[in-house]
Amino acid sequence: MKRILLTFVALAMALSVGAQDKNFHIFICIGQSNMEGNARVEDQDREGISPNYLMMAAVDYPQMGRTKGAWYPAVPPLCRENTGLTPADYFGRTLLEYLPAGHKVGIINVSVAGCKIDAFMKDRAEEYGQTGADWLQNIMKIYDGNPYEYVVKLAKQAQKDGVISGILLHQGESDPDDWTWPDKVKSIYENFLADLGLTAEACPLLAGEVVNSDRGGVCGPMNRIIGTLPRVIPTAHVVSSSGCAENFDRLHFSAAGYRQLGRNYAMTMLPLMHVGVESPIVHSMPRFPGMGGGPRPGGANMPPRPMTPNVTFNVVAPQASEVFFTSDFTEGKLPMTRNNNGVWSITLQPKEAGTFKYSFIVNGATIADPLNPDSDGTQSLLTVSAN
Questions:
Q1: In sequence order, what are the residues at sequence separation of 6 or more whose Cβ sits closer than 8 angstroms to the Cβ of residue 142?
Q2: 144 part of the active site
């Protein structure tokens, strides 16, 4: 009876996305084992999932009754059978906590454990799929030996139902110290945009950090390379993994770590969708430890969170006629841009590491960032890590 009920629910979901819906936001998820899902799925991860959160089965799931290319409730696993929890699980859940009623989120997850970034390069994927260990080649064969082309076919099918709104990448553990990685990612991103008829502004790229050095991550130094991605892709945004709990191998995240990392992806994406995530002031990227209330994880001695080159500040002030940003790492008052929802934004690039003061000027009143625990009067502190 339970299987029959799930079948009817899945059918209803499939019917609900039969025509293109501009409020159906679809995200492509690619990467290696951390995006594939390495942590065991727990009961809490199968509960409380919005009916508006869907996944397109990238392959058949015989045990779960899922068929490749069809939409289903986003109950994990989201990549393939016998994979685990991924950042995508709580990415979609968190988006729907803030998106207006009637909006839907869809995930297409095509990931290959242990792969280099070459697995998703249009001109290298097929050749790469014929090399490496037998287990790696076997995973590549699941995606017809070419994960890039495989994703494109699924995404074109998904575009009949909704709009591709972003690409989520989590990869890098197999490319340590490869300073050509950002350029390779750029080629992948630009090929996706061209082959799917997308614009960069409408489809940003979000790249997550690997297990951070502040958690003893084996590949933590790779985050220095990942952090340079916005320099070569203006619409790329780096998602911090600082504070996200690791697994015993310090290569993968724990279930708790995936949940937090997924939320970090969502909190990075929401302002790009012109959705204010808190009120009245939203500091969206990076999320300082302790943001949103409560004590700082790890206590007052927690190391500074590594920063991405792009830092986006958002102010939810729909009644304001003008809003400015000022700091001691910028010159003068910088005007912030208002969207239709009354969210004022500005994206900046600190040029060096250090601790800086900043403020918001809303209708002439200078205010500190109330969500930043390092605030005093009319100023807040921004700490930019060197790594």
A1: 59, 80
A2: no
Residue 66 domain boundaries: 2-273
pTM reported for the whole predicted model: 0.72
- At residue 14, the pLDDT reads 45
Burial class of residue 151, CB neighbours in 10 A (0-12, 13-18, 19+): buried
Which of 25, 103, 252, 283 is the catalytic position?
Answer: 252
For the chain, residues with pLDDT lower than 70 are: 1-18, 276-310, 315-316, 339-343, 369-373, 384-387
Catalytic hit among 33, 241, 345, 385: 33
Residues 174 and 83 in one domain: yes
Beta strands in 32-128 (DSSP E): 53-56, 71-73, 104-111
121's tokens: 């390069």
Catalytic residue flag (residue 16):
no
Mark whether 249 is an active-site residue.
yes
Assign residue 266 the CATH number of its domain: 3.40.50.1110
- In the chain, how many domains are there? 2
Of the candidates 43, 134, 249, 376, the residue annotated as catalytic is: 249
Whether 297 and 243 map to the same domain: the answer is no
